[in-house]
Design goal:
The complex is a heterotrimer.
Chain A lengths: L5 H27 L2 E4 L3 E4 L4 H42 L4 H9 L6 H11 L7 H6 L13 H24 L4 H9 L4 H29 L3 H6 L7 H10 L4 H35 L1
Antiparallel strand pairs in A: 1-2
Helix pairs in contact in A: 2-6, 2-8, 2-11, 6-8, 7-8, 8-11, 10-11
Chain B lengths: L6 H8 L12 H23 L18 H4 L5 H34 L5 H13 L2 H14 L6 H26 L2 H9 L4 H30 L2 H6 L6 H8 L6 H28 L1
Chain C lengths: L8 H8 L5 H18 L2 E2 L9 H5 L7 E5 L10 H10 L2 E5 L5 H13 L8 E5 L2 H9 L11 H6 L16 E13 L23 E4 L2 H11 L9 H16 L3 E5 L4 H6 L4 E5 H11 L4 E3 L5 E9 L7 H10 L3 H11 L8 H11 L2 H12 L7 H6 E2 L6 H15 L2
Parallel strand pairs in C: 2-3, 2-4, 6-7, 6-8, 10-11
Antiparallel strand pairs in C: 4-10, 5-8, 5-9, 5-10
Classes of the chains: A mainly alpha, B mainly alpha, C alpha/beta.
Chain lengths: 283, 278, 410
């Protein structure tokens, strides 16, 4: 596949799809974000950059909170997802695909149903918390629902496969003989992992972090179903600015602030990871 | 880190000459099963409530066991149609996004070409764009171009927001592949297509499958984008959301349970096939 | 350390060099400019000029068919009422459960109506909220010709005939109504709840559920201040928002709920909450729970899901015929037996009582419960305490919702 045209042929379908159905509409939204007006009289393009200032001024709290929740959920996903992915990749044997299928199975059942179920299970005096309270492990007024904890674990729960699958896809490639060789060279198990397996799996972790951090920061479902007062995420704000207030320019402006922050974060993260990695390789 | 123990290391440990005094606990297995248990907990709750003997529509506390909802599983024609639509959209999305996204991931992971940076940027932008904005933007596109919204537009939208997930997954895998394998194949006289089919594709397959499954999972649970571009077509999540006003009927739990059962069945078939193969 | 031989250094670089070059950024901005140009420089003024009913209905005829967009579970899945309509008139109905909530339905149809397109429905059901007001003010609803609504004139409840949101039913007639009041769990609350002030009582710290809908919470805070929502002014809204902020900041509110407060109320996570009458009736009927529902002494609110015809409807005559048909007391009774919310046809109560008298066993009991339930057939005294929503002019709507979104979305 040396031919110069190959990469272009490979990306062409996706390019066309994303250009028509993502780039064009999102640019339309970019234009909307600079408009002024209201839904009754229509919106006119006035290049009103102040929309952005107002978006940040009014909603910086929710934006920061979303990024923080997203980061916590991502960390949780790495902590839970990496060992699982590694175990399936190395020890899953002939049942690898079965494990992956099991991992994804809960997500084919509607989120609304899963959440209703969680609410039943996590009720203040429900099957999970009730017994802990009656034996005195938890104070009487302890609750999980309607707290930031519930939102963050909910986010981690619903995005775990996005961490496990890319890490798995990469680790599955790791040649056991490399690890063996390291062990033969008297590397401890920890050394073999840190110096051989982990570096090889980084592309997967990178992909996983992207696919968890980005959507969780923009999520609105978990906060609205599991959160309480003071857990609103920026996704909820965008949602209600658009649908309830019909303030399309404001909704668009907040969106682009959020997207800019996330993209800056992604590329900063890629660079930070990059320099570190290169140094390690040279050492 | 027990998770990094390889079968080879295991075999060595099992060698009589080096046998350890007692079998080590496989913490990795325990942990994986614990995580699976966590993932399955709410599903278990859902299944239990599909047997709940309630008299009306609210299905909140346990009232006693009944099988009657399974007898009337398909009592709501709109719910059935919605479920079928969801499955059809999901499968089509998985196929289309799976193929286009994999090609994109392959190109991004392997080739250098003009527009690579921009492609990355667009891809990331597509996963961080909030759904309501994507939905609204797409709807206005369809309106200005006079496209009637419905089943087709739902598929278009779902493919659009899942392509990136597939591409990122596949790209990560491509990066760990050794291009020399393909070179070797070509040196041995294989054409580009043969090389792709016999060497590249099999190596990519786990990632393609993973990406396709992610696309499917995203598609079947989407609510907001679908509500914008769905026109008169209703999907399973849309119907459930709307029904919360008067109470979600137990049939919804039954259908969730049936979907789940099909998944479990697939898993079992998988296990049996794996047994046969080895 | 030695680089694992399979790890291509180029791969690592590729992984981490995802940042776009300057050239890519330039190209992208060119693309963006093209996109912006494509999107046009403004979203056109979308208001349509209002038409008189005479002009709208002139020359329109029945086409023997109509499309009805409704909420899920708002009609028996067998659609017996529609079958009867078809038998009666020969008009067939394509019934779709395509409305999930008012804002997203509005978001979906508004741009279509603005461009004069067909939304795929000739008859639709929406609540008397901000979205309804907007549709009306935008001129997107067909003015009703009451000469075509004789059954409505005869059987429609009088309290529905001159509402603040649609005086004289110029654009809509009710499909079903519901009361927003306070529901509480007597297992948890050891006193009788009678007033809105109970929702602000520090004794229930962290145990109070409020609704997320800006209008619903605004109504309750206004009523607490003794202001009738329909007559409220922006100054009243400020005071109401301050009340709600105080309630939230004192930790009294557990969470703001969408339509999902029944479960936490039954589980005991919240002890008292703003609630809709039909939900509480359903929950008690379905699971035998003893949740209490009260219309607070300061007053509660009544909301109505209304049938209306979009201005671009293809079959408006068939649509208005169905509207009228659903006001036949027997038909309305059938619907009420299924929906369990408040019917706009008072005579349906007698029909259900009659049916209960003729039925036997469990069914008899269920029908009798329904006919005598104040949640389904409020008494006149209760109707007197029920207020309509705030209906801010479209111009004020944003100022109104912003105040209350700031409460629930802090």
């Amino acid at each position: 596949m040396k031919a110069k045209t190959t990469p272009y042929l490979l990306v062409l379908p996706a390019w066309i799809w994303l250009a028509i159905f993502f780039v064009v509409p999102i640019c339309g939204m970019l234009s909307v974000s600079l408009m002024t007006g209201n839904v009754l009289d229509g919106f006119t393009q006035t290049f009103h950059v102040a929309n952005y200032a107002e978006a940040i001024d009014r909603y910086w709290r929710q934006i920061l909170r979303s990024l923080a929740y997203g980061a916590c959920a991502t960390a949780l996903c790495v902590a839970i997802g990496y060992p699982v992915a590694a175990w399936i990749a190395f020890r899953g044997g002939r049942h690898k695909t079965t494990y992956l299928l099991l991992l994804l199975l809960p997500f084919f059942v509607s989120q609304v149903l899963r959440t209703i179920s969680w609410r039943f299970l996590l009720a203040d005096d429900g099957v999970l918390l009730g017994p802990l309270k009656s034996i005195g492990l938890l104070p009487e007024d302890a609750h999980v629902l309607s707290t930031p904890l519930a939102v963050v674990t909910g986010l981690a729960y619903s995005h775990l496969p996005f961490m496990v699958l890319p890490i798995y896809a990469v680790l599955e490639r790791v040649d056991h003989r490399v690890v063996e060789a390291a062990r033969d060279l008297y590397a401890t198990r920890a050394q073999a992992f840190l110096r051989v397996v982990l570096p090889m799996s980084l592309p997967g972790v990178f992909a996983g972090v992207l696919m968890v951090f980005v959507p969780t920061s923009a999520d609105y479902v978990n906060a609205s179903l599991l959160g309480g007062t003071g857990t609103t995420m920026i996704g909820n704000v965008i949602q209600s600015q658009y649908l309830v207030n019909n303030d399309y320019p404001m909704a668009a402006a907040i969106t682009f602030v959020l997207m800019a922050l996330l993209l800056a974060g992604i590329f900063g993260y890629a660079r930070a990871l990059g320099t570190e990695r290169v140094m390690e390789v040279r050492a | 880190m027990t998770t990094t123990r390889t079968p080879a290391a295991e075999a060595r440990a099992g060698d009589p000459a080096r046998r350890r005094p007692r079998r080590r606990i496989d913490w990795g297995r325990l942990f994986t099963w614990a995580v699976l248990a966590w993932l399955f907990t709410p599903v278990a709750g859902m299944i239990v409530f599909s047997f709940n003997d309630i008299a009306g529509r609210q299905n909140v506390t346990w009232q006693g066991f009944t099988l009657k909802w399974y007898g009337q599983a398909f009592a709501y024609p709109d719910l059935n149609a919605a479920l079928l639509t969801t499955v059809a959209v999901g499968v089509l999305t998985m196929l289309i996004a799976g193929v286009t996204g994999s090609l994109l991931g392959l190109a991004l992971g392997r080739h250098r070409f003009h527009g690579r940076g921009a492609t990355n940027l667009v891809m990331f932008a597509a996963i961080c764009a909030p759904e309501v904005v994507l939905g609204a933007a797409l709807l206005s596109l369809f309106l200005t171009t006079d496209v009637t919204t419905g089943f087709v537009t739902i598929v278009i939208a779902h493919v659009m927001f899942t392509i990136s997930f597939v591409a990122i997954t596949v790209r990560a895998r491509v990066m760990t592949l050794d291009p020399r394998l393909e070179e070797a194949a070509r040196d041995l006289g294989a054409g580009p297509w043969t090389t792709f089919r016999l060497v590249t594709l099999p190596m990519l397959f786990p990632a393609v499958m993973a990406g396709g499954l992610l696309a499917l999972a995203l598609s079947v649970d989407d609510f907001i984008i679908t509500s914008f571009v769905g026109g008169e077509t209703t999907t399973f999540p849309l119907w459930i959301w709307g029904s919360t006003r008067v109470g979600i009927p137990p049939q919804v739990n039954v259908m969730g349970t049936l979907i789940f059962a099909v998944g479990v069945l697939l898993a079992i078939v998988n296990i049996v096939l794996a047994r046969r193969r080895s | 350390m030695p680089l694992p031989h399979r790890m291509d250094p180029a791969a690592i670089r590729g992984l981490t060099r995802a940042r776009p070059g300057r050239r890519a950024a330039l190209k992208l901005s060119a693309l963006a400019a093209a996109g912006a140009a494509l999107a046009g420089c403004s979203i056109r003024g979308q208001r349509l000029t209002e038409q008189s009913p005479e002009r709208y209905w002139a020359g329109k005829e029945s086409n023997g068919h109509l499309r009805f967009a409704n909420w899920p579970l708002y009609m028996d899945p067998e659609r017996p009422q529609l079958d009867q309509f078809t038998q009666h008139t020969g008009i067939t109905v394509d019934y779709r459960e395509s409305i999930q909530d008012n804002p997203s339905w509005f978001g979906r149809i508004q741009p279509v109506l603005a461009s004069g397109g067909d939304i795929g429905a000739d008859l639709m059901v929406m609540t008397n909220g901000l979205e309804f007001t907007r549709l009306r003010e935008l001129g997107y609803l067909a003015p009703l010709d009451h000469a075509l609504l004789p059954t409505y004139a005869d059987h429609g409840g009088s309290s529905y005939k001159n509402t603040s949101y649609d005086p004289g039913n110029r654009f809509s007639v009710p499909y079903t109504s519901g009361i927003t009041g306070i529901a509480y769990n007597p297992d948890r609350v050891d006193r009788e709840i009678t007033s809105l002030a109970d929702l602000w009582d520090p004794a229930f710290r962290g145990r109070v559920g409020m609704m997320r809908d800006p209008q619903e919470i605004a109504n309750f805070a206004l009523l607490l201040d003794g202001v009738a929502p329909a007559d409220s002014t922006p100054a009243d809204w400020d005071a109401a928002a301050a009340r709600l902020a105080e309630q939230r900041d004192n930790g009294i509110v557990r969470a703001y709920y969408e339509q999902d407060y029944i479960q936490p109320l039954t589980n005991g996570d919240v002890w008292l909450t703003m609630a809709w009458s039909g939900d509480v009736f359903q929950q008690n009927a379905a699971e035998g729970t003893r949740l209490e529902f009260v219309v607070p002494e300061e007053g509660g609110t009544i909301w109505t899901d209304n049938m209306m015809i979009p201005i671009t409807a293809r079959n408006p005559v068939d649509a208005i015929m169905l509207m009228d048909f659903l006001y036949d007391p027997a038909i309305a009774a059938d619907l009420t037996e299924y929906i369990n919310y408040v019917t706009p046809v008072p005579e349906a109560q007698d029909v259900i009582r009659d049916r209960a008298a003729r039925a036997s066993g469990e069914e008899r009991q269920a029908l009798a419960d329904l006919a005598e339930s104040p949640l389904v057939f409020p008494t006149d005294e209760e109707y007197a305490r029920l207020h309509s929503y705030v209906t801010p002019d479209a111009g004020d709507a944003e100022a109104f919702t912003s105040r209350f979104l700031a409460i629930t979305q802090a």
